[in-house]
Design brief:
Elements: H1 2-25, H2 30-50, H3 68-83
Length: about 80
């Protein structure tokens, strides 16, 4: 079962990176940037809940598209690390 979730989280990170590339190549349109930031923040919300922690960030953060790659990598690392616990 763990391997299944690892595959899902790896697919999620890969797909989010592709979406980020498309958003940047499209000139950073406002609505897709907002939605992608929300999606990435929601991943962080659920990860903190799974860890039994409190989420202190914003659910609709004002992140720029050029920060998404780092956030995607951090989210992926966090989820894969959580699966190891």
């Amino acid at each position: 079962m763990k391997d299944y979730f690892i595959r899902l989280f790896n697919y999620d990170a890969h797909t989010n990176l592709l979406m980020t590339e498309m958003i940047i190549n499209a000139g950073n349109p406002e609505k897709p940037v907002q939605l992608m930031a929300h999606l990435l923040a929601a991943q962080q919300v659920w990860l903190t809940r799974c860890r039994g922690e409190s989420f202190t960030g914003a659910l609709w953060p004002d992140w720029k598209a050029d920060t998404f790659v780092k956030i995607i990598e951090e989210n992926s690392k966090g989820w894969l690390g959580y699966l190891d616990t």
